[in-house]
Amino acid sequence: MLRWLPENVSTYGGDIDAVFSLIYYIVGFWFLLTWGVLLVFIVRYRRRAGHRAAYIRGERLREAAWILVPAFIVTLLDLGIDFSGATAWEKVKGRMPPGDVSIRLTAKQFNWEMLYPGPDGQFGTSDDLLLENELHVPVNKVARVTLASQDVIHSFFLPHLRLKQDAVPGREIPVWFQATKPGRYEIPCAELCGFGHSGMKGSLTVHSAEAYQQWVQAHWP
Predict the structure, then answer these.
(1) For 180, phi and psi rounded to 5 degrees?
(2) Pairing state of beta strands 111-116 and 173-178?
(3) CA distance 119 to 144
(4) Contact 206, 183 (CB under 8 A)
(5) pLDDT computed for residue 151 by the predictor
(6) How far apart are CA 162 and CA 21, in angstroms?
(7) Nearest 5°: CA angle at 219, between 215 and 221?
(8) pLDDT tens digits, residue range 162-217?
(9) What would the mean pLDDT of 58-78 be, rounded to a whole number?
(10) Does the CA dihedral 75-95-121-205 come out positive or negative?
(11) Residue 173 bridge partners (DSSP)
């Protein structure tokens, strides 16, 4: 059903895809049903010689039921989507696991600044590493990213990991992800942030355990 989406390489991506699938099935069913009923009514109640149109005031219960019953069903289905989405939301935003890797990401017009704390594990010290538009993490490890913005609202988007979070000026917003497959993935900005918005792209490199250690040794020998 969602084969047109980018490949999911996130531990919680399946939960988010399940919510999308549920929405598609429900909306698709009601779309087809609505058009089917409309077509039947168009044919059955079309203008014909010898047949006068009847004016229905909608005051009787059986007439009002055409609105009340579908509204009740849609409300129940909407609540089902809400409960399903709440479960996925709790995994993504409610209980954030402790991070194996910590990064501070600052968005600005028109690039991403990634700050790593270095071997001492502390930000703001001499061994910090600042990279532009490059995010490096090990596979199957939890990455904790603290988002900030230097100017306007940006949106940190990892389509393959089903993660999207605005970076808001004056706020620090934590997010996390756990990539399950090594590779290189795009980080576009998903919020219109100025004339250079379309070129604001970074890359996430998910390393194997050995390759990540080699990357660490290359930057902190």
Answers:
(1) -110, 0
(2) unpaired
(3) 16
(4) yes
(5) 93
(6) 14
(7) 100
(8) 999 999 999 999 999 999 999 999 999 999 999 999 999 999 999 999 999 999 99
(9) 84
(10) negative
(11) 147
Interacting residues of 32 by C-beta distance below 8 A, sequence separation 6+: none
Query: For tokens 């998903």, what's the residue?
Result: 190
Which are the contacts of 138, defined by CB distance < 8 A and separation ≥ 6? 100, 101, 206, 207, 208, 209, 212
Looking up tokens 């289905």 gives: 77
β-partners of residue 176 are: 144
Question: What distance in Å separates the CA atoms of residue 181 and residue 151, rounded to the nearest whole number?
Answer: 33
- Model confidence pTM above 0.85: no
SS3 content of the chain, % helix, strand, coil (to 5): 40, 30, 35
109 phi and psi angles, rounded to 5 deg = -70, 110
Contacts (Cβ under 8 Å, ≥6 apart) of 13: 160, 161, 162
CA gap 180, 13 in Å, rounded: 10
Report domain extents, the chain: 13-94, 101-219
Handedness of CA 191, 143, 18, 173 (dihedral sign): negative
CATH topology (fold) of 101-219: Immunoglobulin-like (2.60.40)
